[in-house]
Amino acid sequence: MNHIVIIGFMGSGKTRVGKRLAKDLGLPFIDVDRLIVKKMNMSVKEVFERFGEPFYRALETMAVKELSTDGERKVISVSAGLPLQEQNQKYLQNMGTIIYLKGSAATLIKRLEGSNNPTLEGAENKEDKIKKLLKQRDPVYEKFADIKVVTGVKPFDELIAEIEEKLKALIKKQLKNDKRYY
């Protein structure tokens, strides 16, 4: 399948970037978190509180498994924790092009001020928690990324243009390496 999958830390802009890319490319957009919210008829925070994080992660796995077999090309935004789950990694690898929105700790801390994200809930020091999680998650995101872009350093339109240019270059490279086209 050749979906475009957006990964990255909380606050990196996955949903905003995904919606814009989908619009520009004329593709449907799916946000896995919103898919789960709709299916469960409750917020992510409510799912975490009522059923716990393992249950939420299982819902993510079911969603990404289903999307991995969907024949209609889409732009898909996944939650920050989804790539960390080993069972999800095989689905991600087969879904298509993975774009990692990489944010600095400073950018993400600023964007997550006042966030009610359940992963940060109860943290004595949110800044320390964000830095710790980022340090753990960044290598996983890097491992799966076909395209990496830094978020929070340039205007949104320039970020989108950079992603679209990198997508075009990657597709061109893939076609060149695929001998069936020559």
Low-confidence stretches: none
State the strand order across the main sheet: 2-3-1-4-5
First and last CA, distance: 22 Å
What count of helical segments does DSSP give?
Answer: 8
Give the CA-based shape.
globular
Instruction: Assess the beta-strand content as a share of residues.
Output: 5-15%
What's the Cα radius of gyration? 16 Å
Care to describe what's here?
The chain has 182 residues and is of the alpha/beta class. The two termini are 22 Å apart. The chain contains eight helices and five strands. The protein has a five-stranded parallel β-sheet with strand order 2-3-1-4-5, sandwiched between helices. The protein is globular and about 55 Å long. It has helices spanning 14-25, 32-40, 44-51, 53-68, 86-95, 105-111, 126-144, 156-177; strands at residues 3-8, 29-31, 75-77, 96-103, 147-151.
